[in-house]
């Protein structure tokens, strides 16, 4: 091997010495042997090897230098580019150059101070309106006030600076000279000159101080302007969200205990279980016009309910959640608007909203409703509790009330008071006789021991004025007059029968009355039993005491209820998810919309096949009964007359009915295809089917084809029917097949009619043991005689009818002429269709003759008529398929989405469509879990408060 390498090296040495040297050195260093002489390398070779290694190391270092240099250059270019982009993204601060004075302006500061003041004042006038673009009037007023305050403060500071400058100018030289002296050479050192120089230095120092103060003012103004601009941007964004119908994101605030408790009661609204509604709440009951609403308004410290002049005001339960807050506001549970209770306009709007909700709840001829109107009232010093104001108990119904009004109010009141944890706030009118009370007996029946009843006597001022025996009021407040017991008795004054009195004026009047009342001065009643303030404190204390005593038990009850429901679900529906009614509806909606989208994936041949079948189904009666048979009867074997009649009738049909029939056929095809798509889905849950079926039916009923589609179809159909030339053998065979099929179907129909008229035949009578009636026997005799007659005309002549009647009379069958003509119609039609079938069979092989005569062949004119009808239907099917693919499928999908949206907003309809134990159990599980979670959250917060 070494010899061969030496030979090759010697040969290459003659050609390229430099290359040989390089290869030899490399081989020598690698193997440690000489290539040229095939012997060990001399001692000087390792030195060369070390030199080569050093050269390689230097070359590597040089490469690293090039890499570092290239990376530095590239990185610098990248950083330069990023810096340029960052600098371009910065806001333009060039306007600061216009506001900050330069060196010359500082030199002329005393003469331009007023100008600077005016300039900054103008900037304030420009900057402040930025906050006035917000739609909220309260924000606009706050922005104006803040901007005016800042502008006045700056103006005062500038005026002080100008005044100080003016005072200094009176004791020194004029301002221009002083400005020039600030940068001039020092004057001779005389006593007066030194004094002037010291004054100038002091003035210069004051000027520098003023300059620094102006800069600080400008910086402060700039920060304030930036803050206002940021607020303006945020308010603009909130305003935009409100215009789009979306609520701006608010920070999650910690809810109060009473709000958490109220949400639990909202979850329990309408609960039909035995454990529902057992959480404590204050139920306000009383006779009509006893002052229930006035007591509640005094506790809420706002006139929040509408007033009625002698008529029923409270027509539905009103749940009011009272809680303490920094602002006195009210809000409905299902609304985001807050009513400011310190503004008369908001109070009027609140009362109108309450009245509107009450009237909407009593539709359908009812006077009172059980639908709860929930609202919350927050304000400083308000007690924390939940009150439910119920309609007043009445003793007499007026003619404008529903027949069951009195009983409905009684049952509703009793239902709320039957809650063993409800606090009954019994309101009694003190200005009327106690014997006229209707509510006391009802309260006594629900709480005979009085362990949760608080008695309130209203209108005590009128009672003291009208009663001759004041001791009667004392007996009432001691619980010795009414046949009922209570935890406490209170006497209040809730107004002077004036609608416009404010809560503050009523409270002052109440306090003045009790201070000046002889009844209470004599100590007949304790001081803690009077005024609505003491009443609200006592009711709130009783409410929270009952809440703390019962909430743990209620939480345990719901925990046990949840365990029982979950066990029932696992045993009844082991492999199914717990989906409530809303979740099931959303899944059904999603599946239905997915299946609706598959309409666009139906292939065109399938659409045209279905549309052609639907078109023939809807038009074959017209083709036979309105065109073919009348033309054949009128022509009576006259081909020219037959073709003329067919042309006229086809054109009239195309201009009047065909387009409308085609649209109906397209709708039917769309309906069938959609229903088949629903039926082909394998993995769907059967519980979704009622929702899908109802939505599809409603969407299809709403779906209307485009009006201009009829005009387009009419033009296409007229053009197709005008063509009389069959161009190919395939089209001829298709027309013959259509004619044969149509004739066969029609003849089968006629034969069934004849069978019903004449009864079963001989074979059927013997094989199936059937018999004919007398009427069928008579019809059979007439049919036999008519067939012997052998007439081919659609109507019989008079002599033919007489001949048939005489022949039947000889055989003992008595019939009249009309009877014979009536029997002749199906007999003639059957014979005609039989002959037409024979002609159609003969025309199968006549296309060659037809094509040789260029369409002038008259023997198969019926085939040409069916070909024209078939061509028109084929053209119509193609046009309908394009309309469905391009427009109608999308419009149907839009109608379906609208129907689903309406169904989603109708809880009653969803309850009707999605029913059964599976749905009801899932609904109960969801509600129990929500109530339990909220109760546990409330209990945790309640324990922390303790």
UniProtKB/TrEMBL annotation:
Which Pfam families does the annotation name? Answer: Dynamin_N, OPA1_C
InterPro entries associated with the record = Dynamin, Dynamin_GTPase, Dynamin_N, G_DYNAMIN_dom, OPA1_C, P-loop_NTPase
An example Gene Ontology biological process: apoptotic process
Predominant localisation class: mitochondrion
Give the coiled coil ranges: 193-245
Under PANTHER family, the record lists: DYNAMIN, DYNAMIN-LIKE 120 KDA PROTEIN, MITOCHONDRIAL
Designated name of the protein: Dynamin-like GTPase OPA1, mitochondrial
